[in-house]
Amino acid sequence: MFEDVSVRLGGVSILEGITASVPQGGCTAIVGPNGAGKTTLLLALLDEVPYNGRIRISQSVKNGKPRIGYVPQRLTFDRGIPITVTEFLAMGTQRKPLWLGISRAMKTRAMDLLASVKAEYLASRRLGALSGGEMQRVLLALALQQDPEILVLDEPASGVDVQGGQLFCELLEGLRRNTGFTQLMVSHDLATVTHHASHVLCLNKRLAAEGAPCEVLTSATLTATFGLHMGLVDSRAMPEGMYGCTASCCEGDKDA
After folding, report:
1. What is the pLDDT of residues 4-61, one digit of tens each?
2. Which residues have a Cβ under 8 Å from the Cβ of 212 and sit 6 or more positions away?
3. Which residue, 10, 98, 187, 190, has fewest beta-carbon neighbours within 10 Å?
4. Which domains, ranges and CATH numbers included, belong to the chain?
5. What's the predicted TM-score (pTM) here?
6. Which H/E stretch holds residue 3?
7. CA-CA distance, 204 to 33, in Å (whole number)?
8. Cα distance between residue 239 and residue 165, in whole Å
9. Is 179 helix (H, G, I), strand (E, B) or coil?
10. Angle at which helices 162-179 and 132-143 pack, to 10 degrees?
């Protein structure tokens, strides 16, 4: 999917010659230290930053450009703005101004989207009153609005407690299996990656390794990606399954 992709911003090299695959229908996680270029790689895919090289989408995606849904790490907005979750989900597709009301069809669509992420109870809540986990579910519902073929997420569990992050990843796994989208996410949580990703890209400006979690999340690769301190971590202290296969490793065998 990524073929010799490089990015320079302000004269600074952010990514250098990234060539990597993203198996179609699976969950690919991008891991690496801060400043490694993980988010920049996502932005290149979204065509939000200039890059050299090529980003190729599978020929199985028809009708021109693929539909891509995007869940950012956080949404910056005025939390005092008087808008409900339903209005937020409708504002991108409804033609008439929100102050004229929301059509019945739009309300039904918003409720269906919230139901898909198990968040119907948020429909009438004010957007600025949501917790981090609730906001992530609403942003996921928004990303699902266009029935994406590729779902891109930047630190989807950021600002969410461990249990909430686990539930969010389980929700994503169920949605992916039901709809068949290809999931590409940035994550700093190696335990989450081990248990939920089927493919991993280890990135630090250059690609250090790629493959199934059980193949690439090794002491040697972690050292090459994160630095010496990660390589010195005793495997007994790593999350269960870090050095052993999980069922997710066998998902998806075609490149997106």
Report:
1. 999 999 999 999 999 999 999 999 999 999 999 999 999 999 999 999 999 988 755 5
2. 198, 199, 200, 245, 249
3. 10
4. 1-67+150-156+182-251 (3.40.50.300)
5. 0.83
6. strand 2-9
7. 7
8. 15
9. helix
10. 10
